[in-house]
Protein backbone atom coordinates (compact mmCIF):
# COMPACT_ATOMS: atom_id res chain seq x y z
CA UNK A 1 0.00 0.00 0.00
CA UNK A 2 1.30 3.48 -0.87
CA UNK A 3 2.10 5.95 1.88
CA UNK A 4 -0.76 8.23 0.75
CA UNK A 5 -3.32 5.43 0.66
CA UNK A 6 -2.09 4.08 3.98
CA UNK A 7 -2.50 7.53 5.59
CA UNK A 8 -6.02 7.79 4.19
CA UNK A 9 -6.80 4.29 5.43
CA UNK A 10 -5.71 5.08 8.97
CA UNK A 11 -7.65 8.37 8.98
CA UNK A 12 -10.83 6.77 7.70
CA UNK A 13 -10.52 3.91 10.17
CA UNK A 14 -10.01 6.32 13.06
CA UNK A 15 -13.02 8.41 12.00
CA UNK A 16 -15.18 5.32 11.67
CA UNK A 17 -14.20 4.16 15.13
CA UNK A 18 -14.96 7.60 16.54
CA UNK A 19 -18.47 7.80 15.14
CA UNK A 20 -19.26 4.16 15.75
CA UNK A 21 -19.42 2.69 12.26
CA UNK A 22 -16.73 0.10 13.00
CA UNK A 23 -16.53 -2.22 15.98
CA UNK A 24 -13.35 -4.22 15.39
CA UNK A 25 -12.23 -7.03 17.65
CA UNK A 26 -9.18 -6.12 19.65
CA UNK A 27 -6.39 -8.62 19.06
CA UNK A 28 -6.02 -10.47 22.36
CA UNK A 29 -3.37 -13.18 22.51
CA UNK A 30 -3.82 -15.85 25.20
CA UNK A 31 -2.16 -16.11 28.61
CA UNK A 32 -1.59 -12.40 29.27
CA UNK A 33 -0.73 -12.11 32.98
CA UNK A 34 -2.18 -9.59 35.39
CA UNK A 35 -0.03 -6.56 36.15
CA UNK A 36 0.86 -8.04 39.55
CA UNK A 37 1.88 -11.35 37.97
CA UNK A 38 3.95 -9.55 35.35
CA UNK A 39 5.78 -7.53 38.01
CA UNK A 40 6.62 -10.74 39.86
CA UNK A 41 7.81 -12.40 36.66
CA UNK A 42 9.88 -9.35 35.71
CA UNK A 43 11.61 -9.40 39.10
CA UNK A 44 12.56 -13.05 38.56
CA UNK A 45 14.13 -12.61 35.11
CA UNK A 46 17.90 -12.89 34.80
CA UNK A 47 19.48 -9.51 34.11
CA UNK A 48 22.57 -9.56 31.91
CA UNK A 49 24.05 -7.78 28.93
CA UNK A 50 22.79 -8.86 25.52
CA UNK A 51 24.67 -11.67 23.86
CA UNK A 52 26.30 -11.53 20.44
CA UNK A 53 24.38 -11.60 17.17
CA UNK A 54 27.08 -13.86 15.72
CA UNK A 55 25.49 -16.74 13.85
CA UNK A 56 21.98 -15.27 13.93
CA UNK A 57 19.59 -15.88 11.05
CA UNK A 58 15.80 -15.82 10.91
CA UNK A 59 16.10 -19.19 9.19
CA UNK A 60 17.20 -20.60 12.55
CA UNK A 61 13.67 -19.84 13.82
CA UNK A 62 11.52 -21.76 11.30
CA UNK A 63 8.15 -20.06 10.84
CA UNK A 64 5.33 -20.08 9.87
CA UNK A 65 4.70 -23.74 10.73
CA UNK A 66 1.72 -25.72 9.48
CA UNK A 67 -0.99 -25.89 12.13
CA UNK A 68 -3.51 -28.10 10.35
CA UNK A 69 -4.30 -28.89 6.73
CA UNK A 70 -3.11 -25.96 4.64
CA UNK A 71 -3.27 -23.45 7.53
CA UNK A 72 -0.04 -22.12 9.01
CA UNK A 73 0.67 -20.06 12.10
CA UNK A 74 0.30 -16.68 10.38
CA UNK A 75 -3.09 -17.62 8.96
CA UNK A 76 -4.30 -18.96 12.30
CA UNK A 77 -3.35 -15.73 14.09
CA UNK A 78 -5.01 -13.65 11.37
CA UNK A 79 -8.23 -15.63 11.98
CA UNK A 80 -7.87 -15.33 15.77
CA UNK A 81 -7.21 -11.60 15.82
CA UNK A 82 -9.56 -10.53 13.04
CA UNK A 83 -13.29 -9.99 12.68
CA UNK A 84 -15.39 -11.77 10.03
CA UNK A 85 -12.30 -13.31 8.47
CA UNK A 86 -13.01 -15.32 5.32
CA UNK A 87 -10.37 -17.71 3.95
CA UNK A 88 -10.01 -19.51 0.65
CA UNK A 89 -9.25 -23.18 0.02
CA UNK A 90 -5.56 -22.62 0.78
CA UNK A 91 -6.43 -20.92 4.14
CA UNK A 92 -5.37 -17.47 2.94
CA UNK A 93 -7.51 -14.62 4.31
CA UNK A 94 -9.51 -13.08 1.46
CA UNK A 95 -11.48 -10.62 3.57
CA UNK A 96 -11.96 -9.49 7.14
CA UNK A 97 -11.13 -6.62 9.46
CA UNK A 98 -8.08 -6.29 11.69
CA UNK A 99 -7.62 -3.70 14.44
CA UNK A 100 -4.00 -3.02 15.34
CA UNK A 101 -3.70 -2.18 19.06
CA UNK A 102 -0.21 -0.77 18.52
CA UNK A 103 -1.45 2.24 16.56
CA UNK A 104 -5.26 2.10 16.57
CA UNK A 105 -5.55 1.50 12.82
CA UNK A 106 -8.08 -0.85 11.23
CA UNK A 107 -7.32 -2.76 8.02
CA UNK A 108 -9.49 -4.77 5.67
CA UNK A 109 -6.69 -6.40 3.65
CA UNK A 110 -4.53 -9.11 5.19
CA UNK A 111 -1.59 -7.79 3.17
CA UNK A 112 -1.59 -4.69 5.39
CA UNK A 113 -1.18 -6.79 8.52
CA UNK A 114 1.94 -8.41 9.96
CA UNK A 115 2.07 -11.03 12.69
CA UNK A 116 4.46 -9.51 15.19
CA UNK A 117 6.67 -11.57 17.45
CA UNK A 118 6.23 -9.63 20.70
CA UNK A 119 9.78 -10.63 21.63
CA UNK A 120 11.53 -10.40 18.24
CA UNK A 121 13.50 -13.40 17.04
CA UNK A 122 16.79 -11.49 17.08
CA UNK A 123 16.07 -10.17 20.59
CA UNK A 124 15.44 -13.73 21.71
CA UNK A 125 18.72 -14.82 20.13
CA UNK A 126 20.60 -12.14 22.09
CA UNK A 127 18.92 -13.15 25.36
CA UNK A 128 19.36 -16.90 25.31
CA UNK A 129 17.89 -18.51 22.19
CA UNK A 130 21.30 -18.76 20.52
CA UNK A 131 21.93 -21.88 22.63
CA UNK A 132 18.59 -23.54 21.85
CA UNK A 133 17.93 -26.36 19.44
CA UNK A 134 16.26 -25.55 16.14
CA UNK A 135 13.14 -27.35 17.41
CA UNK A 136 12.96 -25.02 20.43
CA UNK A 137 13.45 -21.95 18.26
CA UNK A 138 10.69 -23.16 15.94
CA UNK A 139 8.34 -23.64 18.90
CA UNK A 140 9.15 -20.10 20.10
CA UNK A 141 8.61 -18.54 16.66
CA UNK A 142 5.19 -20.20 16.34
CA UNK A 143 4.01 -19.96 19.96
CA UNK A 144 0.24 -19.38 19.92
CA UNK A 145 -0.25 -20.62 23.50
CA UNK A 146 1.30 -17.50 25.01
CA UNK A 147 1.11 -13.78 24.16
CA UNK A 148 4.01 -13.91 21.71
CA UNK A 149 2.14 -13.39 18.42
CA UNK A 150 -0.24 -10.58 17.48
CA UNK A 151 -1.69 -9.09 14.29
CA UNK A 152 -0.65 -5.45 13.82
CA UNK A 153 -0.13 -2.82 11.12
CA UNK A 154 2.72 -4.00 8.90
CA UNK A 155 4.80 -0.82 8.76
CA UNK A 156 4.51 -0.33 12.53
CA UNK A 157 5.87 -3.83 13.03
CA UNK A 158 8.65 -3.12 10.57
CA UNK A 159 9.55 0.07 12.44
CA UNK A 160 9.85 -2.00 15.62
CA UNK A 161 12.27 -4.43 14.00
CA UNK A 162 14.24 -6.32 16.65
CA UNK A 163 14.10 -3.58 19.29
CA UNK A 164 13.24 -4.12 22.93
CA UNK A 165 11.03 -1.77 25.01
CA UNK A 166 14.19 0.13 25.94
CA UNK A 167 14.19 1.69 22.46
CA UNK A 168 10.74 0.99 20.98
CA UNK A 169 7.22 1.04 22.39
CA UNK A 170 3.81 0.89 20.64
CA UNK A 171 2.74 4.33 19.35
CA UNK A 172 -0.42 4.15 21.49
CA UNK A 173 0.69 4.74 25.08
CA UNK A 174 -2.60 3.26 26.27
CA UNK A 175 -1.30 -0.12 25.10
CA UNK A 176 2.03 0.04 26.93
CA UNK A 177 0.75 -1.83 29.98
CA UNK A 178 -0.57 -4.76 27.92
CA UNK A 179 2.52 -4.81 25.72
CA UNK A 180 4.81 -4.98 28.75
CA UNK A 181 2.74 -7.78 30.30
CA UNK A 182 2.98 -9.81 27.09
CA UNK A 183 6.72 -9.19 26.75
CA UNK A 184 7.43 -10.23 30.34
CA UNK A 185 5.24 -13.33 30.12
CA UNK A 186 7.03 -14.48 26.98
CA UNK A 187 10.50 -13.96 28.41
CA UNK A 188 9.49 -15.65 31.67
CA UNK A 189 8.10 -18.75 29.97
CA UNK A 190 11.02 -19.13 27.60
CA UNK A 191 13.62 -18.37 30.28
CA UNK A 192 15.12 -15.47 28.36
CA UNK A 193 17.18 -12.77 30.05
CA UNK A 194 16.70 -9.00 29.97
CA UNK A 195 19.28 -6.26 29.94
CA UNK A 196 19.04 -3.51 32.54
CA UNK A 197 17.65 -0.84 30.21
CA UNK A 198 14.99 -3.28 28.99
CA UNK A 199 14.01 -4.21 32.55
CA UNK A 200 13.78 -0.54 33.56
CA UNK A 201 11.56 0.26 30.57
CA UNK A 202 9.28 -2.68 31.31
CA UNK A 203 8.96 -1.60 34.93
CA UNK A 204 7.96 1.89 33.84
CA UNK A 205 5.43 0.52 31.39
CA UNK A 206 3.91 -1.77 34.01
CA UNK A 207 3.61 1.27 36.23
CA UNK A 208 0.94 2.53 33.82
CA UNK A 209 -1.32 -0.47 34.51
Can you tell me about this structure?
It is a single chain. The protein has 209 residues and is α+β, with helices and mostly antiparallel strands. Helix content is 39%, strand content 15%. It is built from 8 helices and 7 strands. The protein has helices at 3-19, 35-44, 73-81, 121-126, 134-141, 154-160, 176-189, 196-206, and strands at residues 66-68, 71-72, 82-87, 93-100, 105-107, 113-117, 149-153. The strands form 3 sheets. A 3-stranded antiparallel sheet has the order 3-4-5. It has a two-stranded antiparallel ribbon with strand order 1-2. The N and C termini lie far apart (35 Å). The model is unreliable at 1-24 (pLDDT under 50).
Features:
209 residues, alpha+beta, three-stranded antiparallel sheet, two-stranded antiparallel sheet, 8 helices, disordered N terminus
Poorly predicted sequence stretches spanning 5 or more consecutive residues: 1-24
Average pLDDT for all residues: 90
The biggest sheet, with number of strands, parallel, antiparallel or mixed sense and barrel status, is: 3 strands, antiparallel
Query: What proportion strand?
Result: 15-25%
Widest sheet, order of strands: 3-4-5
Task: Give the distance, in angstroms, between the N- and C-terminal Cα atoms.
Answer: 35 Å
- The number of helical runs is 8
Cα-based radius of gyration, to the nearest Å: 17 Å
Helix share of residues? 25-40%
What class, by secondary structure content? alpha+beta
**Which sequence of SSEs, written as H and E, runs from N to C?**
HHEEHEEEEHHEHHH
Strand segment count: 7
Shape annotation:
globular
